[in-house]
Each structure stands twice: as structure tokens, then as C-alpha cells.
Amino acid sequence: MNTATLPLERLAANSERLFWVLQTVGWLGFMSLNYLAALGYGKPLHYIYVSAGAAITGFVVTSLLRFGYRAVAAWPLPRMLAASSAMLVVATAVYAKSHAEALFHFCMECRPESVLGYVGYFGSTLYVMLSWSGFYFGIRFSREIAHERETALKANALAHEAQLKMLRYQLNPHFLFNTLNAISTLVLDGQNATANRMVSGLSGFLRHTLDSDPVQCVPLDDEIAVIERYLDIEQLRFGALARGH
Description:
- This protein has two domains: 3-165, no CATH class; 172-244, no CATH class.
- Helices cover 84% and strands 0% of the residues.
- It has eight helices and no strands.
């Protein structure tokens, strides 16, 4: 196993740490792209303060939004969607207002001249918040699905292990070995009829044990029949032992 992948695996296993790492890297990337785009449009170098302010505001708002999303994640889907949409609109309004004030303080000509301009500005900000929310829910749901799949695999493995243990208990190796030894003794003593009866009884007992599903319910009549086979075998075995002594 490559030891270089271990830190990544530990990071992925810790959802809290993973969130803050992705949150920090994501908004740093947003700040960098925003600043480079501004430089491309001819903004001065000190526009970095606007980009940094937008990233810090987005970091804080989405961090708070995450707590809201977590609070409603277990709600029924219609209620969860409605509550998440309402929180998204509020978070977008707060983020847009904070970012706009910083931008307009730096660039007075950037202030829209009509209501439609503000609507368009809100829409562009909503796109950023929608993208963040999509990543958040996508990662969250994928982790939940992976966890449920892992839980199902573990449960399946435990069920198989329990089934094997139940089968082993049904076969009872001491009973099997003692019966085979008794059959061998009967054959050596020339008691072939008794040995054949014991082999026939053991065969029927094992056939029922191997054919039946140990995790399923069986009719009471079948259980009684198996117990009778077991008792017949034990009766023959102890009878053979008594005659041997």
C-alpha cells in the first residue's frame, strides 16, 4: 500500500477536517480567479482587497449556511428543499450586500443605475452560492451513500459469519466424530446391520442439516424429525458402547 495515500485517506475519513480544508482551498481559489479576472479588465493591483473581502465574506456566510443545511438534512425531502432554498436566498442576499458595499466603495462607477442591474448582480452572486451548495450536498450525499454501502457490506459479512457458525453448531463435530468412531467399532465387531442403520441415520441427519437454511424458520415437524434422527443415532451409539463393554 502506498504510504503517500494514508494522509488523504485519514483526511477523507474525518468529515469535519475535510470540510474546512475544502472550504479554505475553495475560497482561496475563488479569490485568485476573481483577482486575476479583475486584472484582466484593467483593475489596479490593490483590487486584491476587494477580492479578499469577497472571499472572506463568502467563507463566513457559507460556513454559517453549512450549519443550517446540517440542521435540516434529516427532514423530509419537500421540507428540506424548501428550508434549504430559503436559507440559500438569505445567505445570497447577505453575501451580495456585503460584497457590493466593498465593491462600490472601491469603484463608484460599478454601482448599477437601475433595479435590473441589482437583480443581475444578485443573480451572479446566487450562481456562486448555488455552486457552493451543489458541491456541499454532492459531497455530503456521496459520503452518506458510501457509508451506507460500507455498513451493508459489514452487515452482510456478519450474517455470513453467523450462518457459518450456526452451521458448525448444527453439525456438532464431537457428535460427528463420536458417531463415526462408533460405526468403525461396529464394523470391526461384525455388527454390520447396526452399523448400516447408524450410517443411514447419520446420512439423513447430515442431509437435512446441509440442505436447510440456518437463518430461516423451519416447520416444527421438521425440527422434531431431526431430533428423532439424532436420538436414534445416539441410542445406537450408546447401545454399541454398552455391548462393547
